Amino acid sequence: MTKHFLYAMLLGLTIISCAEEKTSKSITPIAVNVLNITPNNGVDGSSEKFPGIIKPVKTATMSFQVAGDITNLPVNMGDYVKKGQLIAAIDPSLYKAQYEANKAQANLAKENFTRINNVFQKGSIAEIRMLEAKSNYEQAQSALNAASKNLNHTKLTAPFSGYISNKLMESGDVASPGMPVVELVDLSKVQAIISLSDKEVNHYKTGTKATIYVPTLDKTFSGTLTEIAIQSESRTPVYTAKITVDNPDFLLKPGMTCTNVVENTDNKATIQNFKLPVDVVSITNEGQNFVYVVNAENNTAQRKIVEIGKLYNDGIEIKNGLAIGDKVITSGYHKLTNNTPIKILTK
Questions:
Q1: Which H or E element spans position 86?
Q2: pLDDT of residue 15 exceeding 80
Q3: Prediction pTM value
Q4: Domains of the chain, with CATH numbers?
């Protein structure tokens, strides 16, 4: 009987030992890192970031209004030209000859009209003769004016100061009316072109201040929202907006990418929402988003349902569910369930 008693005691101790070992394993804390929720984690509801691209405010595609062989094209791509400076010229000989011929005809018609008009004033000739002479003189003068304009159009001059952004023809080419010769851009002011969705377009107004950051220059520029489209682009709910920026040093070049921060005129609230790394936000089977936070009372992980907002390059907006002072678990969360014991790693 003593043996039976000893066997029972040993069996009981073995069961208790196994239970203790199993319990010990089940409560091993999970090592985690945390992010403290402070105002620095906030999303500023009074402004938004938009990607954009730099474009010139003023662009001119220059072409001749008359045809001819290009005899002079003294500019190259990238050259800076001043207003009124010669850009290109075509052979003027044909137009100069036409001008001289029309000038001679206009002078002859003027003399004829003057002589006939003097005779008419004396009553020695019918009025119809005087009117015919006057008409001939006016037609000849009109032809002379047209010839003079054609002669002037054999030269292209810069309508404003700027840079030659493209050179489409060379000296020796034959120019036709309206055929592009060079493109001229004014870079004293540029525009950052951004896109607004149909949900965003009514939240912004022209005249609003904006900040432009250009990564390639690592510089920030101040600008103003000057244009907002009232019609979306074809087949997309996207509206083009333009931010105008002074560019006195010509650092901003067309084609540069930029990030634009524009003040939201419909939302002047202070920071209330928070921004977290995207990967710390999980989703339940029911489609609810949640994160794990630290329960300081018993040092466990607590699941918190949150409402997400906009997605940014550096995180996702949390609109509801968190408060300043919460500690969000940012590593080891994939091993957690609700009330799992945790150990916060010190950095």
A1: strand 86-90
A2: no
A3: 0.61
A4: 28-43+271-344 (2.40.420.20), 48-57+186-263 (2.40.30.170), 92-153 (1.10.287.470)
